[in-house]
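ligand=NAP
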Amino acid sequence: MAAKIIDGKQIAADIREELKAKVEQLKSKGITPGLGVILVGADPASISYVTAKEKACHDIGMFSDDNRLCAETSEKELLALVDKMNKDSKIHGILVQLPLPKHIDEQKILLAIDPAKDVDGFHPVSVGKMCVGQKAFLPCTPHGVVQLLVRSGVKLDGAEVVIVGRSNIVGKPLANMLIQKSPTGNATVTVCHTRTKDIAYHTKRADIIIAAAGRPKTITADMIKPGAVVIDVGVNRIEDSTKKSGFRLVGDVDFEPVSQVASLITPVPGGVGPMTITMLLYNTVESASQK
Ligand code: NAP
């Protein structure tokens, strides 16, 4: 039986509607949630991400302070802009689009963001709070994955979850969220990576598999147990001469065969992707609500 598709676009649209209502409420109290956006350089992928984030802000009635800086911007100038945004009461969240040009120390910039405005959830203070179960801004992609699972009615309590990938922005925070003693946690989590001896040994016993390796076909049909829930975080470009662009996007999961074995599965695109920006909006509205 083919798996049911988890429609990330629809779930993201539902959350954005909820946020739109919250923004209206805040506006009636004189607060317009504001996101400070900083892009350094002209990397085409970063431009399209930032443009999508700005548009998403406006679509739900938020305001965005858009700053496009040239690639030659110095670290000092960037730090000064972050500092200005930290002090600006109209800005509730700060987003510095990564990657930054090589002459700028990314960690130094992320550390300079006031944790109270760290809506990307990458500041060590946010990460630390998340680990010990305190209220914190959760990083957007893993938070989006948890929301996809919860809103699709997937039982996390006691579930065996296997995550493939241990990056600081996806695998590690996701593992942390899912082991929290909370209604959106309580799972038993295994994290696999390139030094894992036998990934299939782990994935075969998983109720939920989350692929975040950045490699097509990391998860194949023979690696999953019948009825498993499969979440595909991966976004990979592969050559496709039938497309005008010459490429198409695929995830880390061998979608067609895996969907014959799984019970629920996310597509790429249209699965985790739309949730990432949505959770950025969520964090910014939360930050404004705390004012
Ligand atoms: P990353 O920093 O490159 O980390 C990849 C992780 O996967 C690493 O921990 C690596 O292990 C592991 N890995 C790679 N190949 C593997 C393999 N063959 N078997 C087992 N583990 C393997 O990537 P990332 O930033 O976490 O992103 C992962 C994927 O998600 C990428 O495709 C990215 O584009 C996508 N992504 C999507 C969104 C979205 O909004 N949809 C957001 C963020 C990321 P080691 O640590 O041992 O090297």
